Amino acid sequence: MPTSEPMRYAHSDGWTDVCFEESGRYILTCGSDGDVRIWDGIEDDDAISHRCGDKTFAIACKGNRYFAATDSNTIQAYTFPDGSPDGILTRFTAPANHIVLNKPGTVLVTGASDFTIKIVDVNNCSYKTCHGHEAPVLSVALDPKEEFLASASCDGSVRLWKMSDRSQITSLSVLPKCSDVSLSKTLCRMCWEPEEGKVLYVPVNKEIHVYERETWSKTSTFTDDVFTEHISVLCISTDGKYLAAGGSDGWICIFNLHSKKCIDRHRNEKGLSISSMAWNPKGNMELVFCDKEGQLGQLKDISITETIQTEEKDNKVASDVFDDDDDDFLIEATGKDVDSDDDDVQTVKKQADNNIFSDDDMMSDMKPDNDDASSITSEKSDIIHKPEIKVIEGFKPVPLQKPFQSGSTPQHLTNRFMVWNSVGIVRQYHNEDENTIDIEFHDTSIHHAMHIMNNFNYIMADMSVEAVVLASEADSEMPSKLTCMHFSSWDNNKEWSINMPDDEDIQCVTIGEGWVAVATEARNLRLYSLAGVQKEIFTLPGPVVCLAGHSSQLIIVYHKGMGIPGEQYLGVTILDVRTWKREVHDETLPLSPKSTLTWLGFSAEGTPFYMDTAGIIRMYGRYLGKTWIQIANTRTHAKGKSDHHWIVGIHENPQQIRCIPCKGSRYPATLPRPAPVILPFQVPLCDLNTEKSQYEELLWRTNYLSNHFDHWTQQGFEFDESIKTDAKKPAQEALMKLFALSARSEREFRALEVCEMMTDQHTLQLAIKYSSRMRYMQLAQRISEMSVRKMEEEAAKQYAQSYESEDYPSKSRHTNISSICRDDVDNTDSYNNVDESQEVEMEDEEEESEEPTGPMLCVKTKDDKPEKSINPFKNRSNPFKVVSTPHPHSALSKGSQVFDSMSKKKEKPPAFNLKPSGIKLKKGSQPKLLTKKKTDSNKESKQENPSSVKPPSAFDLWLEENKDSLIETQPDNEEDFNRFAAEQFRALAKDQRQEWIKKAKSLNEKSKENETEVVDNSENKKRKREDDDNDDSVKKIKDNTDSDVKKKPLSQTTNSKLANFAFSKD
Amino acid sequence: MDPSEVEFLAEKEMITVVPNFTLDTIYLIGGDIGPFTAGMPMEVPLWMAVNLKQRQKARIRPPEWMDVEKLQEKKQEETDSKFFTEMPCKHYMELTQLLLKYAIDDIPHADETRTLIKDIWDLRMAKLRSSVDTFVKSDATHAKLLHLTLMELNTVRPFLTKALDQLHVLRTNISGGVELTQE
């Protein structure tokens, strides 16, 4: 290993050229800053600079002049060492890339980006041009006999020219093609054998090719394993024994040209590409080199111990493989193997190691022993070494994902976002003259923007509407620090800080509603109140990756262990920091293949979401078995392959993914101010271009994204039910359309399955109506069966609930009994349905023309039940009793009244027999699902007509009888008369009054029967007009029952409901 | 028509703003606007954007075409074309004027934008004047110009129509005079 001084700054970033002054004392460099610097040895701290232009591309020095190629497209001569201009040698139409001089310094050859090569006579500035290259010339190499000239170009060719007539001898296409020198992977600096020019060394890819003079055939190639990229620069020592090769990956290898083996190697710091090299002409085996960032370096003490080289070339190469730092442990490993053999070998091994690693002059002292030593080493290494190389390639642990803050950009950026969330933005500016933090709120009514000095080097931040938290990592002087700017506080202390214990570094920080959580390197999770009270502390199961908080929920993601190759194994815990309930307990966070977590947070509604590097956004299915559901793929919205989206917030209602599109990167820059866009959610169902899938997608998306309402209810939040109804409406509509779609395509079973998913009786009724109208009678019948079943289930649930809530255990027995009763009723009902459905259809057809909306009204049945039992009068006039007949228990929650209502309903059926529909008569009093409802609803409106239908009371009868006599006694105005009459009636004897009451009752019964008869007879004619009334009256009822109803879009007319079924066939 | 009237019409153009307040939908005669969500871009009419900007309630996002590169392209196209090219916005001049007046801090490279818009305007006005010139000189009865914006039309309308009127009067007088002498 050669010794290398630390690299020193020579020029600004860019390709840099270097050469030695003849004596070897001065080093000349030139670079992209346009200066030529003359260094008195590498240690010179006060190099002399001469300005040559805006950029200098190449330099060569001879005697008291040096020549520089500048961006003015000239080769300019300067005097050395004072650097005064000494004339222009030649001009090009583009910058020259490489200059070489012949040994006496009389001929200068240079290749330029204008595709030409010029051979210039230094003394009289006359020149000859070689044309032929089809791209910028990368480099030239002059034969020491000045007979030939080699040149390499971006067109991929290495050409050989005859100097005398500038004719092209041969062209070898060995290089990669490119359009410009700056894009070229290699500079292709070639070398002739310096004495006779017998061979030409050309760097081709990772190899050095050797071409023979005159025949120009490739005689051999050699290389070294360390090169991972192109070899770019070759430089041969003045004595022609050593060849230095510099690669684009920063490796420099010194080859012994005799053995064609690498004898020493050096890796440039940071692995920067080598842009030029020069041997010290003193022949002291010093090599200077420059890299493409303008750094100058020097290699000394290059191990060239020739005896070893010549005697044991192979061995040397073998042991040299170990030189790489990464392989150190391997040598140790082999050393251990050797240990077990015997002591002699061990000592020998140690010496060999010394040999390999020593950078000092011990080499020569050790020479005598080394012969044996390295021979043994080589044997050993040959045997042991080979299988072990495979082991290295075998397993590489996946680096663990580092902890990060959601919504922040990487820390190495000078201007970065510390956080961008739905509350605001925190930016950090960190450069030489500024170290500040900018806090800005989206909504300025929360707080005004703040600009603070970042004296404590905060690197993490989170913000809520109550406070901003900042956290710093520990450094040598200060422990890790947490600061909370509690701006919503009503006292005067708006800020508090706390230092972590010495060995704990804050890695993640988050803020919830009234609490701050911090995860530290020591795997502690510390909770603080907003005003700075230290609260719970507990230990995380693994190194933290990310934290997020919302209200009282805290989500923690941490490493659980080693993942399968290439993947992270992350664990997730969701807990409530108030009640200390764990919702998700140490489960695995699913990630897309080979991806890492990039964003973690809650939606505004409080559902956990996260995104991984594959661009997939997943949400937590709180009520779906606590699964994680893919809900969007941001990659489908990215325009380019390297474009990404950077999440700033997620909202479930309205469904929005708020993110910032980043062109060609994963993070946005702070300037220009990025603008958020809104992306839609999409559940990744199959065949999304078909209508069916679209409805299915809509259905599931709506279902997934409205789960938070249940969570809210569970948490005891109050919210307007109408929001929930509105949010769930698309799902209902999607179901209806899906149903219609399935029915139309004759997929009746599927249609029934869709119906199974309908939670709402109302939609079920619509489905029945629709299918019967479309003449899918079997379907209609099955749906109605299902509807009945569902209603029962629901009622049973409600019933159970009502008893539970009343906490009245004795009634539970009653429930059982009633449910048995119910079953009986249902059985008969379902039998009837078979016949009935046919009838339904006929009737429908009859009526369709007259009253398309009529039957829809009945769907409210279920909702009216509770009301019924409260108000017996309403029961009588309720038009929906048919549906409720099979389910009298639906009113069971109200106790014994159920049976009353049942009996009352049973009174009714005769009325239907009177209906003047021939077909109907056959059916007798069998309960019907649809048809009866219609007639009933009509009746209702009749009965609700207040004056005409009102049954006469006992008082009325009595009054009728005695009116005349009463008028006589009290002839004044009507009001007084009525009062007087009432008084008189009350004054009657008890038995007398009872008689009147009886009379009135019998009368009522009779009149009722008559009345219904009349109504039914006249019905057909009147129906149309009455329907309108019905609409209104039913609506009124709906409004009354509104409070009890769940998710019923009530304000809609039935017409618009039906419209939901409409869908475009294509 | 007054230029201020044209500007008034231009104020109906929609433009994206990022409000820094949250507000429900507001119902106006011209249509509903909102809801406003702090930090989320949304479209409002220009007049409202300007108003919000003046009250520091919003940042204005310049329209996509108000970009130095795109305007340079447009300018080149306008220079190369013999005829008027279609402008990215019907009220580009008024919009630029208003935005540069009230929201100059929201527009990157404001000065360059101003110059470019002015250049394009000048190019188009020169074209317009030269076409008016050829039209009048050629004694044609009608001419057709495409892609002119309202503001541009408005600059020549009062003068051109009056001038043509006057020309007509002069012409009839001449022909009348000739007739008279003939008789």
Count of strand segments of chain B:
5
Helix content of chain A: 25-40%
Number of helical segments with 4 or more residues of chain B: 6
CATH topology of the largest domain in chain A: Methylamine Dehydrogenase, Chain H
Query: First CA to last CA of chain A: what distance?
Result: 76 Å
**Helix count of chain A, per DSSP?**
24
The chain-level structural class of chain B is mainly alpha
Profile the largest sheet of chain B. Answer: 3 strands, antiparallel
CATH architecture label name of the largest domain in chain A: 7 Propeller
Structural topology:
The complex is a heterodimer of chains A (1066) and B (183).
Chain A: E1 3-4, E2 8-9, E3 17-20, E4 26-30, E5 35-40, E6 48-51, E7 56-62, E8 65-70, E9 74-79, E10 85-91, E11 96-101, E12 107-112, E13 117-121, E14 127-130, E15 137-142, E16 148-153, E17 157-162, E18 168-173, E19 191-192, E20 199-204, E21 207-212, E22 218-222, E23 231-236, E24 242-247, E25 251-256, E26 261-267, E27 274-279, E28 287-291, E29 295-300, H1 306-311, H2 313-320, H3 328-341, H4 343-357, H5 362-394, E30 415-420, E31 424-431, E32 434-441, E33 450-453, E34 458-463, E35 468-472, E36 481-485, E37 495-499, E38 506-511, E39 515-520, E40 524-529, E41 534-539, E42 544-550, E43 553-562, E44 568-576, E45 582-588, E46 597-602, E47 608-612, E48 616-621, E49 627-633, E50 644-651, E51 656-662, E52 677-679, H6 691-704, H7 707-715, H8 721-744, H9 748-757, H10 761-773, H11 777-806, H12 811-848, H13 861-870, H14 872-877, H15 881-884, H16 897-907, H17 910-913, H18 918-923, H19 931-944, H20 946-949, H21 954-969, H22 974-987, H23 990-1041, H24 1054-1059
Antiparallel strand pairs in A: 1-29, 2-29, 3-4, 4-5, 5-6, 7-8, 8-9, 9-10, 11-12, 12-13, 13-14, 15-16, 16-17, 17-18, 19-20, 20-21, 21-22, 23-24, 24-25, 25-26, 27-28, 28-29, 30-31, 31-32, 32-33, 34-35, 35-36, 36-37, 38-39, 39-40, 40-41, 42-43, 43-44, 44-45, 46-47, 47-48, 48-49, 50-51, 51-52
Chain B: H1 3-10, E1 14-19, E2 26-28, E3 31-33, E4 42-45, H2 46-54, E5 58-61, H3 68-80, H4 92-102, H5 110-137, H6 150-182
Antiparallel strand pairs in B: 1-4, 1-5, 2-3
Helix pairs in contact in B: 2-4, 3-5, 4-5, 5-6
